[in-house]
Amino acid sequence: MIDNDWQLIDLVTGYQPAAAITTAHRLGVFSVLGRLPRSAGDMAAELAVDATNLGALLEALVGIGLLRREGDRFAATPYAAERLGPDGEMGLVVAKEAVFAGAWSRLDEVVTEGRPVMEPWRSQLDRNPEQARALLDALDVLARIGGPPLHELGELAPGKRVLDVGGGLGSYARPLSEAGSHVTLVDYPLVTGWASEELEGTGVEVVGVDLFEHPSCGVPPGSMEAALVSHLIHDLAEDQAVELLRRVRSAIAPGGHVVVNDFAGDSGPGAFGALFDVMMRVETGGAAHSRKALESMLAGAGFERIRRLPYDDPLTIYIGVRP
Ligand SMILES: C[S@@+](CC[C@H](N)C(=O)[O-])C[C@H]1O[C@@H](n2cnc3c(N)ncnc32)[C@H](O)[C@@H]1O
User: Fold this and answer.
1) Which domains are seen in the chain, by residue range?
2) Cα(287) to centroid of ligand 1, in Å?
3) 167 CB under 6 A from ligand 1?
4) What residue spans of the chain are helical by DSSP H?
């Protein structure tokens, strides 16, 4: 609970470190600054920016803990050099958050008008494929650093025919396939084009289809022993999610399993839980559904024996059986 002015001031100035980091990343600071110290003037010349204000930004990044200063020169910390430097995958996550920060600046519209401010994902794919690809790359990083080890679930591997519904670039399809399952990843055609390049040689099959335009998610009815629906339900309003889960159920043979991997609106600290729910309303018009809602959506789509698996918050993983 917030009970003093300084806690509140800390919260309302939270945009400042976020903007400092995303701006430094966008300007290329972490790309040109390795562990060897450089002066602000030297870097400003390379980046074609104002030396004085770059110096101020670098100083702020020292305070944040991503750079260190030696005299009047700056160097990346070991963490920043490794994770934000030219080969560092966290740059993708930083860039993703910069896109979302722009959308959050229009939160008043979201709340006033009751709709998201970001374009629907399908038109983002059409109109800005480069940004859409970058968002999927960032999700792939996040799945690798924080996703649950779903390939360890007996219902999904080894040796199962698994449908990865809205599988993106294959963050979960790859380990499931490596664990010995026969995985079919279904997503929009542009995304499956990217996924098939990423997954070359893994044995994962891809099917490019709009999930809402095929009664059993692009595969023959009853052809799968299990389906994974990871981070897709939260993109959808409740009625759409039930409709999707019905199509997923059609793809699964009787006795097979559905696994839903998501973040619930009522579990999880920080950027998860309630704030993640707001994020979905800004971004997609979906919601971080409550655990109760997830259970009732699965039941509404015809799944039985629904239970939450014992992962710690914010990981929210449900399993159900197709009767
Ligand atoms: C948030 S990403 C999740 C990716 C991956 N499953 C994961 O857990 O990281 C949602 C994915 O679902 C796909 N998707 C959303 N709606 C879809 C639809 N109607 N048809 C096909 N794919 C869809 C998106 O293209 C995207 O790849």
Assistant:
1) 5-87 (1.10.10.10), 148-321 (3.40.50.150)
2) 15
3) yes
4) 5-12, 15-27, 29-32, 40-47, 51-64, 78-84, 90-104, 107-113, 121-127, 129-146, 173-178, 189-198, 238-251, 273-283, 291-300
